[in-house]
Write a structure and sequence with these properties.
This protein is mainly alpha-helical. The protein is 48% helix and 9% strand. The chain has 4 domains: 145 residues, Rossmann fold (3-Layer(aba) Sandwich); 153 residues, HUPs (Rossmann fold, 3-Layer(aba) Sandwich); 56 residues; 97 residues, Orthogonal Bundle (Arc Repressor Mutant, subunit A). α7 links the parallel β9 and β10. It binds glutamic acid. Glutamic acid binds next to loops.
């Protein structure tokens, strides 16, 4: 017998941008589908008008695309299906699995307060479950508003969670939940069941904060005589302070990480390792590899911690794994945006750009580091870093730089070995450490006190430019002294 095609989904609510938790759950679902040759779908859960913002849907979809997640059918919008739930509600009433509840919000509130004061269970007291046919007819004739409640049967319910194993709850812990409000709007759990059923979802993989919903949803499936999908609940991502990651606490969304220079592949890889592992010590796992090895059995039960430093380190690994020409293509628009150079300039000096990228990439942990470390390769209008000036620029440094200029001027072929040789010779002559020359020269030619090997920078800039910049720095130092 051929196995049923796997169909999974991510169901974001557009109440914020793509959250790292939702992205991670999307990744698990997507990898599961891709690994099994199944389908990955998207459903936008936008029925809660007060919390949903239609303008957030596109950014959520864009952030998923950015991560490399694609979907196999048009996204389903819950708000467009609002009228389709009534049929199911009627089915539940007609089969005796749901009943009309005429209790007013005030009555419910009062009862709840009383129960609270008496330390009794807060559940609905089933006042409307036992109304007679005549009573109901009468109330309907009076146009009394009513909600619809699901009648939870006696006993207990067990389901086999694909990650957590068998989970059992006493049905008495669940009240007869409202599935349709007095205004005719279906309630969340009913909509989820109907949508998952109509979308042919075979496996629901979602955060473990939904386990209590799962029990409610299983009751709805059973009442509708539908077979529930498989359920798999993944552990929630925590902050280093062990609180749940949240926008409110200042945690960034996926697009923000992208804007900060995190590569999509690194983000994908990092998020996938939050709660899942290949069961060996590999951490650098590109998407193509993950597609082959992802299995739900390797999702851990415990809550993973979001460690941003780890993400940045992994991003650095991805940067180093990219060929220079690919990085150059990614960095070029950023350099133009930063105002360092023009598109035309770069297009005509592509090899120069690749050399710089090759030089910097060992040191870059975010794509934005390329921009931060490269201004001086494109023009000489940069300012010297204040702190470095205090530490490195003084008359002695100027004097030494003057002598170094003479040495550099006499180099016939301004190549790495010759540059290094000239600087080494002067250090020896002056009986100083090479660093005494390297630090001020670095500041003179780049304006900053960090970056790749100075000899490489000097070679890339070329003899004339290096001499011009060193002379400009000497003048600057001399003027400093005048003040
Ligand atoms: N909209 C829900 C959420 O964002 C998803 C519910 C589900 O996956 O069933 O948490």
């Amino acid at each position: 017998m051929s196995e049923k095609e796997v169909r999974v989904r991510i169901a974001p609510s557009p109440s914020g941008y793509l959250h790292v938790g939702t992205a991670r759950t999307a990744i698990f679902n997507w990898l599961y589908a891709r690994n099994k040759g199944g389908k990955f779908l998207v459903r936008i859960e936008d029925t809660d008008v007060s919390r949903s913002d239609a303008a957030l849907v596109q950014p959520i979809l864009d952030a998923m695309k950015w991560l490399g997640i694609d979907w196999d059918e048009e996204p389903v919008y819950q708000s467009k299906k609002i009228d389709s739930y009534g049929v199911y509600v009627n089915k539940l009433i007609n089969s005796g699995n749901a009943y009309r509840c005429f209790c007013t919000p005030d009555e419910l509130d009062e009862r709840r307060k009383k129960a609270m004061a008496e330390k009794k269970p807060l559940q609905y007291n089933r006042a409307c479950l036992h109304r007679s046919e005549d009573e109901i007819k009468q109330l309907l004739a009076e146009n009394k508003p009513f909600a619809i409640r699901l009648k939870i049967p006696d006993g207990e319910t067990t389901y086999n969670d694909k990650i957590l194993g068998d989970i059992t709850r006493q049905n008495s812990e669940i009240e007869d939940l409202i599935i349709c409000r007095a205004n005719g709007r279906a309630i969340y759990n009913l909509a989820v069941v109907v949508d998952d059923h109509e979308m042919g979802i075979t496996d629901v993989i979602r955060g473990n904060d939904h386990i209590s919903n799962t029990f409610k949803q299983i009751h709805i499936y059973q009442a509708l005589s539908l077979t529930p999908p498989n359920f798999a609940h993944v552990p929630l991502i925590l902050r280093p302070d062990k609180k749940k990651v949240s926008k409110r606490l200042g945690d960034k969304d996926v697009a923000e990480y992208g804007a900060e220079g995190i590569l999509p592949e690194a983000m994908f890889n990092f998020l996938c390792l939050l709660g899942w592992s290949p069961k060996d010590d590999r951490e650098f796992l590109p998407i193509e590899e993950l597609k082959k090895i992802f299995v739900l059995e390797n999702v851990n039960g415990s809550n993973p911690i979001f460690n941003e430093e780890k993400l940045i380190a992994l991003n650095g690994e991805y940067i180093r794994s990219y060929p220079d020409h690919e990085l150059a293509a990614m960095v070029a628009p950023e350099l133009v945006r930063a105002g360092y150079t023009s598109k035309y300039w770069l297009e005509t000096r592509w090899q120069y750009l690749m050399d710089i990228i090759g030089m910097l990439k060992e040191r870059c942990k975010r794509m934005s580091d390329f921009v931060a470390m490269s201004e001086h390769f494109f023009h000489n209008e940069f300012e010297y870093d204040d702190k470095a000036v205090k530490k490195r620029f003084n008359h002695e440094a100027a004097e030494r730089m003057k002598q170094l200029c003479d040495k550099f001027e006499s180099i016939g072929n301004f190549k790495l070995e010759n540059i290094e040789g000239a600087l080494g010779d002067l250090a020896e002559e002056l009986q100083i450490k090479k660093g005494e020359l390297i630090h001020p020269v670095r500041l003179a030619v780049s304006g900053i006190s960090f970056g790749p090997s100075l000899y490489h920078i000097l070679e890339a800039l070329g003899q004339q430019e290096v001499l011009a910049r060193m002379k400009k720095a000497i003048e600057f130092i001399n003027k400093m002294g005048d003040k």
